[in-house]
Amino acid sequence: MTFTITERDKKLLSILAVVLIAALFIKFLIIPQLEAKSDLASESIEVDTQAMEMKLAIDTKGTLEEKLKDADEEFVQRVADYYPMMQSYEIEALITKMILNNGMESRDLEVSSKSYVAEVNPYFASTMGLEMAMTAEGGEGAGSTDSGSSDGAQSVEQTQSTVYASQVNVTVTGTLKQAKHLIDVVNQEYPSVRIQTFHIDSEAAETTEGAAVDMTTLDLGLEVYMCEK
Description:
About 55% of the residues lie in helices and about 25% in strands. By secondary structure, it is α+β, with helices and mostly antiparallel strands. The termini are far apart.
């Protein structure tokens, strides 16, 4: 059996061959090129975005450095009066030296084994107190009392997160004059040591020679404030 290819069949086969070649050309050449072009376009957008971010970072570098420098200077000023974080024996040495420098003797000195987060309630007329009051009033002026309270609480919480305290209880012996002077010294010369409680017990005694002696006992409850520096 023989097949005769007519002119019409030849034309159809030619058209089919052209279509097949075109399909293969599109599938293996055109489509990969289009996909590659799309990927390059996406990569170009990402690179342009990264370039813009890097340029913005470079442009703002000076401003950020200035802000960081100002923040560091403000932090140093705010924590200038606080002691750096100390161990119990270091706090004990600090308090003992303070007492001995006043001519008195210490006994029953007890320092809390672990420092705790301090609850800072600043004096209302202090710089920190005024700043907190202005923050709270600003929040209320914006029409949101809860927001203002939240801002004030957040301000205190932020302060508390960086200020720590250690409890110290000590009994000091000496004269009544020395006891009163020691209280004044703590209040005036040790801004990061706060007297929480004190009790003075003073009585007169006589030596074996009959001389009058002032026997005064001062019980102090102190709080030593520290922060990370």
